[in-house]
Every structure is written in C-alpha cells, then in structure tokens.
Amino acid sequence: LDTYGYDVVHLARENLVALADTLAMDMFDAYQAKDREAFAKSSREYLELIEDVDELLATRREFLLGPWIEDARRWGSDDPERLLYETNARTLITLWGPPDSGLHEYAHRQWSGMMRGFYLPRWKQFVDRLEESLQSGRPVDSDRFEKDIRQWEYRWTRQNESYPTVPQGDPVETSRRM
Q1: Is 135 exposed, middle or buried, given 0-12, 13-18 or 19+ CB atoms closer than 10 A?
Q2: Which stretches within the chain are classed as H helix?
Q3: Does the pTM exceed 0.90?
C-alpha cells in the first residue's frame, strides 16, 4: 500500500504539471492578446494549481522540503554552522550558486514547501509584473524583473523558516480530489 500511495502521488503530480503547462500557455496567450479578464482567470488558476500541487506533495515524505533542510541542519555542530548548511541546501535546489549562476534552476525540485514557499511567491511576482504591464500599457522590463527575482531568490536561500517533515493528508484521497 505504501508504494501504491507513492505511485498515485507521483502520477497525479505529473498530470497536474502537464495541466500547469496548459494554464501557463493560456496565461501568456491572454497577456499577448491584452485580454485582462482572461489573464486574470488563467493566472489565478495557475497560482491555485501550484498550491494544489504543494498540498498533494505534502502527503508523501519523499516530496517534502522539510527533511532536506532538517538533514542539512543536522550536520552542523553549532548554530552558525547549521545556518550555513541550511543556506547551502537551499542554494543547491534553487540557484545552484551565486544569484547570477548559469546553472540557475538546474536542480529544480517539485517538493511540498518548494511549491508554496518558493515557486508560488516567485510566480506571483511574475504575474504581478504582467498585470502591471496590462494596466499601464507598457511592456514588462524583463531585465529589471530578472535582476529583481534573482535577488529575491538569493534572499530566500538565506531564510530559515521551517517546513513540515511529516506528511500531511491521505495521498490517495488527495490525488482523487485533485
């Protein structure tokens, strides 16, 4: 039964990610068409889907960010070292180096905690820039956004909020609901 639960979550995750691709394309098409209503609908659905994926992933330990961070912190012999190891663990799964690293997003992880704590706020910032562009009629300053988001990501790697280390919810029921 345990491996079945893993497989169900893994398969549901794959399907939800495929849906995310479709919603993202809908969002970009609406933006290009300058259709604010369609953009609002598709971007809202996209952001809600990230939350749903996080909830689904939270049902399995294999898909939790918390153990990754806690394991890294456990290696430290004192508080400064624990914080350093947490920063390194966060950097490995996001920037892979300094904010301007060419390997940025190399280790992309679909983990509960990452979805809600990292990808959702990042996507919200992007959606906000597109919305501002639609409202003002001016194009998004993509260079400015890239610089801003990389600084935001860097700051995220320096945080130390905790994430669940124990699964929450029933994997099969949550998969069905999704």
Answers
A1: exposed
A2: 2-32, 36-57, 65-74, 79-92, 114, 120-136, 142-157, 171-177
A3: yes
